[in-house]
Amino acid sequence: MPPRINIRLRFPLATNLHFTHRTMSTIPTTMKALLIHKQGGPEEIKLETIPVPTLGEGEVLVKVNYAGVNFIDTYLRGGLYPVALPFTLGQEAAGTLVAVHESVKDSKLSVGDKVVAYVGGSYAEYVKVPAGKVFAIPSGVKTSEAAGVLTQGLTALTMLRESHAVKKGDWIVVHAAAGGVGLNLCQIASHFGAHVIGTTSTLEKAELARQNGAEIVVVGGKEGELQAAVNKATDGQGVIAIFDGVGKATFDVNWEILARKGTFVTFGNASGPPPEFSPLKLVKGNWKITRPTLNNFIFTPEEFHTYAAELFQLMHDKHVRLLISHVAPFTAEGLVEAHALLTGRQTVGKLVVEVSKDE
Ligand code: NDP
User: How far is CA 140 from CA 264, 311, 317, 320, in A?
Assistant: First the structure.
């Protein structure tokens, strides 16, 4: 490991001896991380010892307490999305800011702060993050909650602002409405005044979606049921937007329920990627289709901070309510089980990995 000469402590020693001392003495040179050497099944996940990342320009180091589990983990692990190997999994982390590169000028960041970060490689004891992708956890929010809400909450919020800017009175469909992103979509869209028609695979999930803002929930994906529910609710007009993270399995039905000038937001592949299609398919209703990714909505530090602040305000005001349904231990077996639950459709809300105790 190169010496850490470029790391500057942000607090004057005299006033923050505890943090500076802890930072100086407790950042080790190696750490545990959950990674893959080969894309494939869950058995490729290994807990290994690797170097603690060295900070570069504009970066900070976070000691991770919790990392959120997201469906995208399974695409990155399984090979749907390409990665450079070896690859440490994980998309978001919350923990303690333990070091700041001297080039970072953001005075809002201080060593010792509890922060949440939108960052790859978060199933690790330490993760380095561009300073612009770190947000101080507001008081009253637990570290586990911050890790649990960031990616899915921001995905829902950004799509409802930018993929289809939802308005009061809009009728929309949210597929997998009791999932992580799904619950956040139901909560935020209903708060914005939209009428949500959700889909789920079970009655229990449907009840949860209802408790979180869905007015109507269609259960089990039986032929014709979603079309009938949409027709009834909208007087045959169809819904003005569809938010679909399921992908392949729901692709065809979406064209039967979309209103004239409606928007099909396809944002994930839980059942497999949607098929290719001709733009001529859009002629029938002057439809729009968009395939957003969160990263492009929160690309700049300003975008990230604006949306993160809005998300935590929504959480403070109880318009976003986090349901953590599973806390996995920081072991290969723990993450394998979490992935199996997620891909087996056995989860609701959010799963997190407890990487280290929250002090
Ligand atoms: P979820 O908690 O929503 O889990 C996925 C859900 O999809 C399941 O619970 C299940 O709900 C439903 N589903 C339907 N068919 C299948 C199937 N064949 N296999 C597995 N699940 C199925 O996961 P997340 O909230 O983490 O992610 C939801 C979607 O959002 C994913 O596609 C993910 O990739 C995407 N996403 C996209 C982002 C972006 O930037 N574009 C960012 C974050 C997430 P049910 O049993 O009720 O049908």
Answer: 36, 14, 12, 14
- Given the CA of residue 347, which atom of ligand 1 is nearest to it? 9
Question: What is the mean pLDDT of the segment spanning 19-34?
Answer: 71
d(CA 24, CA 291): 44
Structure confidence by residue, pLDDT tens digits, 69-84: 999 999 999 999 999 9
Ligand 1 atom 29 nearest Cα: 245
Cβ neighbours around 21 below 10 Å, total: 12
Structurally, what CATH architecture does the domain formed by 152-294 represent? Answer: 3-Layer(aba) Sandwich (3.40)
CA separation for the pair 194, 198 (Å, rounded):
12
CB 249 near ligand 1, within 6 Å: yes
Residues 135 and 60: beta-carbon distance below 8 Å: no
321 lines ligand 1 (CB under 6 A): no
Residues of the chain with CATH 3.90.180.10: 30-151+298-354
**Residue to substitute in 69, 72, 161, 350 for testing ligand 1 pocket (most ligand atoms within 8 angstroms of CB):** 72
Where b means 16+ CB within 10 Å and e means fewer, 222-237 reads eeeebeebbeebbeee
> The whole model's pTM is what?
0.93
Residues of the chain with CATH 3.40.50.720: 152-294
Which ligand 1 atom is at minimum distance from the Cα of 294? 40
Q: Which CATH superfamily groups domain 30-151+298-354?
A: Medium-chain alcohol dehydrogenases, catalytic domain (3.90.180.10)
Mean pLDDT, range 127-138, rounded to an integer: 96
Q: Whose CA is nearest to atom 32 of ligand 1?
A: 268
Whether 268 lines ligand 1, by a CB cut-off of 6 Å, is yes
Confirm or reject: Cβ of 262 under 6 Å from ligand 1: no
Question: Do 239 and 217 contact (CB within 8 A), yes or no?
Answer: no
